[in-house]
Amino acid sequence: MKRLLSIALLFCMPYALGKSNLELAKQAEQLPRLVVYDSSYRQIDYPNGDVPSHYGVCSDVVIRSYRKLGIDLQKQLHEDIKKNFSQYPSQKMWGLRKPDTNIDHRRVPNLETFFARKGTVKPITVKGEDYLPGDIVSWRLDNGRPHIGIVTSIKASNSRYYLVMHNIGYGQVTEDVLFKWKIVGHYSY
Asked: Which pLDDT tens digit goes with each residue over 124-167?
């Protein structure tokens, strides 16, 4: 009976996680690894703009994964920040007076605000089981810098929780970093 229940749960897992969340995790897992970390400001197209694919930062992992699902975070965030500029940290953190389609969606604090406004804010816990494939996690690094990644469907070895796809300067990699830094955001979108 236990074996039958285990098999049933295995087949139901994609539906329990939410089909789109599992698809997002799978898209993140398929991102190319060799990406030069480059946070420089660049003029990009709008909508569906992106820096050259061999460049990127942590937020590009999230943006590119959603884009593979047909979701343009650049456009969605821009439409929200345009209507609700004072709700975003753009003026306080970067001194901006209006939205900027070239960079707004690539800034982690803006993504945190967007996911909190438009997605589901999930509890921040110390239990790895609470972080499911496709969840978005944001941290503050030891130096205070913001960082963001996507929980994958790949389990950490000898663990009950999943690895995270992120880019902290060594390319877009899947690593066991969920609890490496202080978690400040946990979202589903």
From this structure: 999 999 999 999 999 999 999 999 999 999 998 888 899 999 99
Low-confidence ranges of the chain (pLDDT < 70): 1-19
The domain spans of the chain are 17-188
- How much is the pLDDT for 2? 45
C-alpha span between 138 and 126 (Å, rounded): 14
Phi, psi for 138 (deg, rounded to 5) = -125, 150
**Cβ burial 97-111 (10 Å sphere, 16+ → b, else e):** eebbbbbbbbbbbbb
Beta strands in the chain (DSSP E): 36-37, 55-56, 120-121, 136-140, 146-155, 162-166, 173-175, 182-188
3-state helix, strand, coil in the chain (%, to 5): 40, 20, 40
Write down the CATH number for the domain with range 17-188: 3.90.1720.10
